[in-house]
Amino acid sequence: MTMTDGLDIVAVIGSLRRESLTRKLVTALATLAPPSLRIELLGVGDLDLYDEDLEAALPEPWRAFRERIRRADGVLFATPEYNRSIPGVLKNAIDVGSRPYGESVWAGKPAAVLSVSPGALGAFGANHHLRQCLVFLDMPTLQQPEAYVGHANELLDPGGNFVDGAKREWLRQFLRAFEGWVSRQRIPLPT
Questions:
Q1: Rounded CA gap, 40 and 65, in Å?
Q2: What sign does the CA torsion over 183, 188, 189, 191 have?
Q3: Residue 153 carries which DSSP code?
Q4: pLDDT digits (tens, 9 = 90+) for 13-38
Q5: C-alpha pair distances (Å), 153 with each of 9, 45, 108, 150
Q6: Does a cis peptide bond (omega within 30 degrees of 0) precede residue 80?
Q7: Mean pLDDT across the stretch 165-180?
């Protein structure tokens, strides 16, 4: 892929609920992305729970998930907060992508974390637990601006449009920073 093709970003959504605030926010966020940043939402609900025994007869959803992450230029993790941590489905997706040992699809992949909550803290606990996983996975992760999105239930109208221009612009700046981060982390492939 050349830079003129744009950056291929996978948004890994850590929520299963159809009406998830996290999913709605990332869907709206994708419309704010600069033209050079292509964001595809990737759900994690069809991934079997990680069990090393399944590697012998690799489940098709695992294979497809790993391949999609492998092709991406960067990963945007979007997570709600459950009990001051990340949801189990997101941790499972991380585990599926990190195995078998030595073949992690995450290694070296630039990342950013967006945590979403209807509460005031913006899923701060989930954000930092997720970052701890990303350190071990060797994923260079955008540090600034941090993206803790509180009161997410008030950000979008029923049509999925941002109702607050200042927050919309802040999220646009977050995406621009992520675009720059991924661009700086890319290692040109040998030709």
A1: 13
A2: positive
A3: G
A4: 999 998 899 999 999 999 999 999 99
A5: 25, 22, 34, 8
A6: no
A7: 95
